[in-house]
Every structure is written in C-alpha cells, then in structure tokens.
Amino acid sequence: MNPLTIQRSGCLTIVGGLLLAGTVTLGDTGTARAQNGVILDQQLDADNKGYTVIRVWGSHYEMGYAQASLLGDYIVQGVNETKAYLDQFGMYDYVRGIMANALWMPPGIEDEFDAIVDCLAITHPEEHIDELDLKVACTTGEWLYGCRSHTCWGRYVATSIKTLSTRRLDFPTLYPSMNHHVLCARDPDDGSPCWVNVGWPGIVTAATGVNEFGTVVSLHDYYCDTDFSAERMPRMVACRYARTFATDPDVSTHLATVYSELQTYEIMTGSFVNYYAPEGHGSVMACHPYNAEPDPDFYNLRIPQGVWHHGEVMITTNTWTDGTTTPVDEDFGADAYYDDETPKTLESHWNLLATAGDGLHQLSVAYRGRNDMTIWSDGRLDDGNGGRTPRLEWEWIDLFVTAGDIDGDGDVDLADFAVLASCLAGPDVDTPPGDCTLEQFEASDLDDDNDVDLGDFGRFQVLFPT
C-alpha cells in the first residue's frame, strides 16, 4: 500500500499536518477516520488524480454520512463536473427530472443520499447540493458501458483458489473526477452482504464490484436503448441491487433468487448484467426496456455450457451468445487463453485484459471462500502518458477490519480500550500478561512490533473516535 496524501475532504481540514476541525481524525498510521468510515489508503496528485481506498459501515444513513465526511470535497467536484458536462447539451434539468421518477433499490439507498446531502449542507453549504444532484452523478454512463469480463473455475484454477473473475470497464473519461478511483468496502448492519465497489467519489450505485460471497456483478452494453418513463430502474441501481439482495449461505441459490427478483422490475437502459457467482453458479443476463408486457425486462439467462471450454468458463463482451460459442466481438484472446487448460493464476487472469486494453478501471478477484478472497484493482489517469494508478492489492479481511477494533466487533470503543489495557506488558515483551489471550495480545499490537506498550496506547488514542 502507498502512503496517504490528504489535503482537505469533507469535514476534515489538514494544514501543515495539523487537524483543524471535523468528525474525522488523522493518526500517525496514515489513516483518516470518520464516525462510521475510514480511509485505508489514498494517493492523489495536485489535480486529484489517483485513488482512495475507503471502508464505511453501519446503517445506510451512517455509511452515507461517513462517505461524505471523508470524501466531501471530491463528491462536490464530481457533482459539479457532472452538471457542467450535461449543461453543454442543455440536459442537466432534463436528467434530474428523469432521476426524480426513477426506481431506486434497495430502499436504504435513499437514506444514503439523504445522509450525503445532510453532511454536505454542513461542510459545503454554498453548493446547495440535493439528492437529485447526487442521483444524476450516480448514474453517469447510464447510456454507455463498453466492457470485457471473464471468469473461470474447475480445471482452470488450482490450489486454494476456487474461482477467478476479472472485469475491465471500457468507458471514456467524461470529466476529471473520474480520474479519482475509489475502492469502497461497504459493511451494512441490516443483514445484507458486505460488498466492495469500484467507482469514483460519491458513487453509491454500482458498475463493478464483488460481494462477500465472491459474486462479481458488473454491467456491459447490450441493446443500449432507453425508456425514461417513471418507476424504471437505472441499470447501475439494478447492478447494486443484484449484488446485495441474496443472503442465503448457499451461494448456489443466489442466481435464481436475484433473477426472479429483478424480473419484477422494469429497466431504464438495456444491458448485460454479469452475475459471476463463484464455482459455476453465475450467469450473464440480458435486460431491455422495450420488452412487451407481460414479458419481463430481464431475460435470456445465460449459464455455463459444457460444450464451450468444458462449462468452466464464461466471458462477456457487448454482443450476445448463448454460451456455446465465443461472442463475435471477442478481442482479448480468451479462446487461446482457455484452450491452454493449465491452471490460471490471478496474475495471468488480470493480464489477459490489462494488456489488451486501457479500461477506465479493472477489477480481479481470486475467490477461496466466503469473506476469503484477494482483490486487485487499478484505474486510468488520463495524464497523456498512458498512466494508471498503482495496482491495489488487498485481502478481503484487510478491507473489513477497522484499525483499533481490537475485539473485532466492527467499531472502536471503550471495550477495545479495556482489552488493550489488559494486554499492556511493556516494550520488548512478546508474551501476553495475566488474563490477556494470545489472540487479544496480537490484536492489541497496533504498531506491529511484537509487543504491547505505550506506543500501541498512543496509536489507539488517535484511532479512537471523537
């Protein structure tokens, strides 16, 4: 991971390394915290090109507020750039009207928008940003998503890896804030799955990401027609809803559950929705807004076919296939890659798409089990030199563990301090004292120097929410 660089964001202001105000703190670990959020890593240049890795948790409202607390300046930048882009064509007010009548699921997403608006009303009152401004920004690209994706399992993976999935978003940079790539780990408290989203600041909808079950859900262009009548679901909303709807511990049931649910809604924009559930339990589903009633807008569920690479591979481009043949616009060498049946590595899976194009962002997932996977991601910087962010390489567990959460209950509070106090043994003492267990001792070693002393106490002080 790279060092954190923050100038000002939302409720946080740093001048000369000093915290001046807000609900966010910055410790010597290089981690910025809000009440229900934390910036795990960030690297931005003077033009805000680069990346941020963030985790938010709690209720939908708390997650939205934390997101705005930590990324407020960048969210405002994105909203203003979206408005300027659409205003070139005299369309901003028109699109606001469309989004006012759109269908937004799950219902908690409205709480997230409300929270972002509430936070920005405090930190950026002069901007007068409302819910519709955010909804327009969160559906940028509703009409265009050219992409490539592939996934494999069975004979094509080895050792502890059960499924490899990679998705490249082939999308133009419509405005500068799209060069700020945000990897956001979301940990809701309503019983829905944890999930990781790849996007840009303020995005609470989804184009690319993965949930705790290892299911990669993403969008591709297909029949990119639109119907802007009321109560239709934007496809970026459908993508998020698909990623968070199924909760059965048995992932083999998820596809039927999600597909059945989506068929009860009308879609705003035609698309493919990849539902790459691990170990062959996934699909590609088509959707189109002009299907005649009573035909559902979601249809043509494509599942793995044994006659094509043994039914242990799926690829998605932007043209239709029934799964028995390669899509006609396949252009990244998938057939040759899978004709070689030796087990694939995460590196080779990543490189198949990374070396064949320059997507706005790319995500690869090596799935070993529920809440047990490796995630790689990067993004285009549009710096004129073919620049990209460093490849971010994270373990799922590291994205969802909060620094200072010694007792592992998802927050940092006095209970964590009590454990730390019981484990204090002094410098260079590498065994737990008294009633402190080895697990508690290791969790209390916040500076990773194999002891629990005043250095760890000092780190806990800056991680404790104010």
Strand order of the largest sheet: 4-5-6-7-10-11-12-13-14-15-16
Q: What's the story with the biggest beta sheet?
A: 11 strands, mixed
Rg of Cα set: 22 Å
Number of domains: 2
CATH class membership of the largest domain:
Alpha Beta
CATH superfamily of the largest domain: Penicillin V Acylase, Chain A
Number of strands: 20
What would the average pLDDT be, to the nearest integer? 90
What proportion strand? 15-25%
Number of helices: 12
Quickly give the structural class.
alpha+beta
By oligomeric state, this entry counts as single chain
Instruction: Determine the fraction of residues in helical runs and give it as a percent range.
Output: 25-40%
Tertiary shape: globular
Q: How far is the first residue's CA from the last residue's CA?
A: 26 Å
Which regions contain 5 or more consecutive residues with pLDDT less than 50?
1-30
Q: What is the CATH architecture assignment of the largest domain?
A: 4-Layer Sandwich
- CATH fold-level label of the largest domain: Penicillin V Acylase, Chain A
Report on the structure:
With 466 residues, the chain is an alpha+beta fold. It has 2 domains: 35-399, Penicillin V Acylase, Chain A (4-Layer Sandwich), CATH 3.60.60.10; 414-463, no CATH class. 27% of the residues lie in helices and 24% in strands. The protein is built from 12 helices and 20 strands. It has an 11-stranded mixed β-sheet, covered by helices on one side. Strands 17-8-9-18-19-20 form a 6-stranded antiparallel β-sheet. It has a 3-stranded antiparallel β-sheet with strand order 1-2-3. The longest helix has 28 residues, at 60-87. The protein starts with 7 loop residues before the first strand and ends with a helix. The relative contact order is 0.12. Residues 1-30 have low confidence and may be disordered.
